[in-house]
């Protein structure tokens, strides 16, 4: 345990090459082709995917435009290959911090491009400075498009109220715990409280007929969601997990007959994402450290 925690702290200082070796587990690769390959492999196991171009916070709007073009290519390729896959986009990757209106136009262009190919677009949720702007963009897009969804984080105190408002417009919502560090005034810090809120939000949305993506690797939340689904008797939902994480639990959910979608990140900006994955999973970081000590 101690070695694992120490390893997690050391991860950001590991050479890029070493992080790259372990990163293979969490990202499909640098290219779109690698993400399509993983999608094909997972589809053989009856698992669908959502493709994510790695990165966030572009330096200028030209950078955001380049990301739009890359996602257009992703949509074209998914459509040409008839794969059961969609895309996830991050607002700051598409210019939110620079110009919210330009970000709206960028996401709308992608949602429109996707609609023409019958593909769904999920808008990821980033840190709390972006929550209101992201939900505003989502509401505006919903006025014209059905093929778009958003994310609520159960650590956010506001999420229950946001779920109520979103259920009024028949939103498609991914529910996750939330990955950023947020202050106690706006976010629950206690794991049990975050889990209770997760299940409250899931139950509210399912009960109002919304499509819910239950995004977790936490076995207790999977069991809690099973209980909600059983109680409600019906519901539009899928489970979601990140590539390379808790594959046994993933397979057990699929074996029980539930729809499963895997988040498949790819792209050149793999380093920061991989370091985050390793820091969140001290056990794997521990394996890396032990391997390094054995093979100096
Ligand atoms: C499909 C998907 C989309 C997501 N989208 C967003 C988003 O838009 N915004 C956002 O803020 N967060 C997002 N997240 C991240 C999420 O908020 C959590 O930070 C993350 O899923 C960990 O929470 P958990 O529910 O899996 O429970 P935890 O209790 O954190 O995890 C349960 C177990 O799973 C394993 N595990 C969990 N996460 C990882 C990991 N990353 N690497 C290695 N092992 C891990 C660990 O063994 C852990 O013990 C997403 C997660 C998923 C699965």
Assembly type of the shown chains?
A: single chain
Q: Roughly what fraction of the amino acids lie in strands?
A: 5-15%
- List unreliable stretches of 5+ residues: none
Cα distance spanning the termini: 22 Å
Number of domains: 1
Measured as a percent range, the helix fraction is: 40-55%
What binds here, in terms of ligands, is: flavin-adenine dinucleotide
Largest sheet: 8 strands, parallel, barrel
The number of strands is: 8
Question: What is the second-level CATH architecture?
Answer: Alpha-Beta Barrel
Q: What would CATH call the class?
A: Alpha Beta
In short:
This protein is α/β, with parallel strands linked by helices and 296 residues long.
Secondary-structure topology with pairs:
Layout (H helix, E strand, L loop, with lengths): L1 H9 L5 H8 L8 H12 L4 E6 L7 H21 L3 E5 L10 H16 L5 E3 L7 H12 L5 E6 L5 H10 L4 E4 L14 H17 L4 E4 L3 H14 L4 E6 L4 H9 L4 E7 L3 H11 L1 H13 L2
Parallel strand pairs: 1-2, 1-8, 2-3, 3-4, 4-5, 5-6, 6-7, 7-8
Bound molecules: flavin-adenine dinucleotide.
The site of flavin-adenine dinucleotide has 23 residues, from β4, β7 and α11.
